[in-house]
Write a structure and sequence with these properties.
CATH class of one domain: Mainly Beta
Helix content: 10-25%
Shape: elongated
Number of helices: 2
């Protein structure tokens, strides 16, 4: 088999980015968040780009994030507005299944 075909078969079903829920941590005393926050990149405390902020309603929103990097980061920041955000794994997401436990050998994430 060719190298590209082997890689494609091996990585089928691997999810690297996800649309994840976020909470915007306001720096204002009243705890309110601006009504219009532009689409912008999200970075970690060491400056690594982990995704893109998409939209929000009040202090909750959605962002397209590199799943593993976002979960491992202890601090996420919107790079243009310097607002802090946090994300989490929703309780309703399916649990990860290992490659070895799948009958066909492919992992589902």
């Amino acid at each position: 088999m060719g190298q590209e075909l082997t890689a494609r078969i091996y990585h089928t079903g691997v999810i690297r980015k996800r649309l994840m829920p976020i909470e915007i941590i306001s720096d204002r005393e009243d705890g309110q968040v601006s009504d219009s926050i532009p689409v912008q990149n999200i970075i970690t405390n060491d400056g690594k780009n982990v995704g893109k902020f998409r939209s929000h309603s009040e202090k909750f929103g959605l962002a397209l994030l590199k799943y593993e990097d976002a979960i491992k980061a202890n601090k996420l920041t919107l790079n243009e507005t310097n607002l802090q955000i946090k994300t989490w794994i929703p309780f309703w997401w399916p649990k990860e299944v290992s490659r070895d436990s799948m009958p066909c050998g492919r992992a589902i994430h």
